[in-house]
Amino acid sequence: MLSIALLATTALQAQNLQLNDREYFECQGVNVLVFSNSFNGGFNDEKNSGIEIIHHGVRTVQGGAVRLNNTPEQWDLVPTMTNRKVDKEAGTIEVTMRYDDYDFESRAVVTAKGKAVEIAVYLDKPVPEKLAGEAGFNLEFLPSQYWLKTYTMDGRLGRLPRYATSQTVTRPNSEKPRQFKGFKTYDDRGTERFVDPLPIETGHRLSLATDDPSRLVTITSDDAELRLFDGRMLAQNGWFVVRSVLPKGKTGKVLTWTVEPHAIPGWIREPNIGFSQVGYIPEQPKVAVIELDKNDTPLADAALMRLQPDGTTTEAFRSKLTTWGPYFKYNYVKFDFSSVREPGVYYIQYGKTRTNDFLIDEHVYDKITDATTDVWVPIHMNHMYVTEGYRTWHGEPFKEGYLQAPESDHFDLHRQGAQTETKYKPLELIPGLNVGGFFDAGDFDIETGSNISVVQNFIRTWDLFHPQRDETFVSQQQRYVELHRPDGVPDILQFIEHGTLNLVAQAEQIGHMASTLSNSVLDNYHHLGDAASITDGLHYDPSLKPYEVSADGKRSGTPDDMWAFTNRNPSLDLQAAGVFTSAARVLRGYNDALADRAQKQADRLRKEAEQLQANRRRPRGRQNNNRQGSGDLQAALDSIPMKDAAYRESLVPRVREFADYIKSFDTQNPYGVPIGLGNWAGVNAVLNFGITVNYAHIYYPDIISKAEVYRVANWLYGCHPYHNYSFVAVVGAARPKQVFYGNNRADFSFIPGNVAPGLLFRKPDHFENYDDWPFLWGQNEGTIAGNTQYIIFSSSLRNIVGANKDQ
Ligand SMILES: [Ca+2]
Ligand SMILES: [Ca+2]
Ligand SMILES: [Ca+2]
C-alpha cells in the first residue's frame, strides 16, 4: 500500500510544476528558473539570465524579462534585478526589474498553474514616453534546438528557419533605445537609421516545436499580442524571440502569458558516461564517471566491450559500480576498469547506453599538443597573412597601425584616463605597433597581460622540453605564415619571437606597456570574418567625411583605426621586464637584434617601474592567502632548476600539503578536479592545477604519484558533466567538441587545437556546455593565454608518460 501511495504522489508531482527548495519550478523533465541568474555578467546580455527553461536537460529558453528591443543584442540595455521574492505558500516568484537610464521599473510575477507557469507583468507607473511601443516582455528560444521545427500561431502552420531570412525595416536612430554606455553595435553608413526586424508571425496562441515533444512549448495570451522574431537578423548570436509590447499609459497588471513547456511523462535523462575520448595508456587508472538523473535507478554493473579486428565484439571486463553520490542535481556512480591493460579498441556498455569507442594504447597521448601548436597558435598570429593549403585564414590585419586612445570607457573592460601618459596626443598615430602579437581569443585585440603570459608560457615550454617541432613557415619580413610548411626553425622560437616583437615595440614606442591594443568602435569589435577586413587599412583622417578616401588612397574618414590604451601600470611593466629578460636569453643566437632590444627594455622598465612603485608607495609582493593552491607552489616549483638540493628539500612540506589538496577533490566532486562555478567556466584553474600536479610529480614523484597526473587529462578529454566530448578541438580521437567560440563561430565551426572554458555553471544547480551553439563565450571561447597553458600542461603530461621524447 505504501509503495502504491508513494507512486501516486510521485506521478502527480511529475505532472505539475512545483516550486522546489532550490527556488525554481520543477516537474520531471522541466525546470523553470526565474532570475536564478540575473543580468549582471561581465559583458551585458550574455544569454544566460532572466526567466529560463531547462527542458529535458537542456537550457533552451532564457532572457525572459522586460526588454527594450524586438531582438536584443549583447550591448542593448539589460534590466537590473532590484528585488526577488520567493513565496513558497503562494507558489510564486516575483522580481523587480529596473532600467536606470529611463527610470523605468516593472515587476514580473511567475506562478505555477498546473503544468504551466503564468507570467504576469505589473507596472506601478506607465511605460515612460520614450519607451512606449519599445518596452515589452520577451522570452528567447535557442535557435539550434528550434530551427527546422514546426510551429503553429493561432492554428497557422510554419517552420522555424535554419538561417535568418525574415524581413526588416529601418527606423531613425532617434527612435532606438540607448545601447550600453552609448556605444553603437552597428555602422549605419551615414544613413542615421537602425535596422529593426519584423515579426515572422503574430497572434495569441503559439506552439513552438509541435513536431518534437522534448522541445514543445505553448504560449498563450488573451490580453497581449504575441510576436515571433528571429534575433539572428541583427546578430549571429541572436535567439528566436517571442515578445509582447507593453501597453501605453496603463498601470497594474498589464500583460499575462501562460507558458507551458511540454513534459514527456516519466522522462529520465540518458546517462552521461564520462571517460577520456583520447583513450588511456595501459598502466594508468581508468575510471568512468556515470552521471545519472535523480529519478534514475543506478544499475549494479557496467561492462567494457572490446572491438576485435575481425569485426566481432567481446566483453573484456565487467564490474560492480561504486556510488559517489549526489552533486548538484545529478547522481554519480563510477566504473573502474583500470585492470584492463591490453591495447585495443573498446567501448563502455552501461545498461542500454553505449559509448563511442576509444583506445587503450601506449601512444594515446602522443599527439595531444599538435593541433594547438601547429594550427591554433599560428592562426592567431596578428599582423601576418596566414594560409594553410588552399585556405587563407586571414590577410594582414591593421596595416594602418594604432592610434593613441583618447579618454574613454571601453566595451572590452578597459579604460583610458584623461592623461595619455605618453608623448602622443589623443588619436595621433603611434608608429611601429602593428607588428607581432597574438589575437586575444574569439576577438582580435592584443591584451598585453595575456600576450606576456603567452610568451612566458612558450618560454617555460622551451626551457623544459626544447621542442624542435617545425611545421610552420614564418617570415616576419614577408609578414607571411604558412601552416604545415617547415622552414628549418623550431616553431616555438618563432612564436616567442612573434610575441616579443609586439611587446618590445610597445615598450619602445609608448615608453611603457599599453594595457591593450583594441578596437575603437563597437561596430567592428564584434567582427566575424577575415581579421584583415576589421579596419579599412587606411589612416583615419578626421578632415575627410566618413567613408571618404583621400586622393592618394592612403587615408579615409572612417574612424575604424584601432587604439592603444596607454595608462601606465608599473606592475604590468615589471611583468614585461621579466619576460623580456627570459626572451632575450632564449632568442640569443636566433635573433640577436631582438634579444638586445628586449634586454634593453627589460633593464629600463624594471628601473622605472620600481621607482614608480616606490613613489606611489604601493605594497610590494603578492598576497599568499592560499598556500595550498596551485599558483604559489607553481612559482616555487619553477625555480627548482635554478636552485640547489637544499631548496628542493625545503619545499617538501608544501608539496605534502599539496598532495592532500589534490586528494581533497575526491570528496568535493565526482571528477576529482577543481570545478569553477563562475561566469566563465573554469578551464584556466583546472589547467593551472594540472600543470602544478605535473610539475610536482616530476620533481617529487614519491609524494605526488604518477596516477594523479591523469585527473585533468580525463576532465579535459571527456570525463565531465553534461556530455562526454573532449574540450580540445579535434583532440580526442572519437568525439571532440564540434563548435567553439572562435573567430569562425558564425560558421558553427572551430579552430583546431582550441580549448573550451568547459562547463558553465548556471545557478542554482546546472552545468552546461552547448555543442550545437558556439556563441556563449563563458563555455566555448578559447583564449591565447589559456591555450598556451594547455601547451604546457599537455607537453608536461607527454613528457611524464614518456612517449615521443624525441619530438
Ligand atoms: Ca579581448
Ligand atoms: Ca618553423
Ligand atoms: Ca582605418
3D architecture notes:
The chain is α+β, with helices and mostly antiparallel strands and 807 residues long. It contains 15 helices and 44 strands. The chain has a nine-stranded antiparallel β-sheet with strand order 1-2-3-4-5-10-19-18-15. A nine-stranded antiparallel β-sheet has the order 6-7-8-9-20-17-16-11-12, with no helix packed on it. Strands 23, 24, 27, 28 and 29 form a five-stranded antiparallel β-sheet that branches. Strand 16 and strand 17 (217-220) form a beta hairpin. Helix 9 packs across helix 12. Mean pLDDT is 95; it is low at 1-8, 620-625 and 803-807. Bound molecules: calcium ion (CA) (3 copies). One calcium ion is lined by residues 470, 472, 474, 486-487, 489, 491, 494.
Q: State which percent range the strand residues make up.
A: 25-35%
Bound molecules: calcium ion
How are the strands ordered across the major sheet? 1-2-3-4-5-10-19-18-15
Class by alpha and beta content: alpha+beta
List keywords for this structure.
single chain, 807 residues, alpha+beta, nine-stranded antiparallel sheet, 15 helices, disordered N terminus, disordered C terminus, binds calcium ion
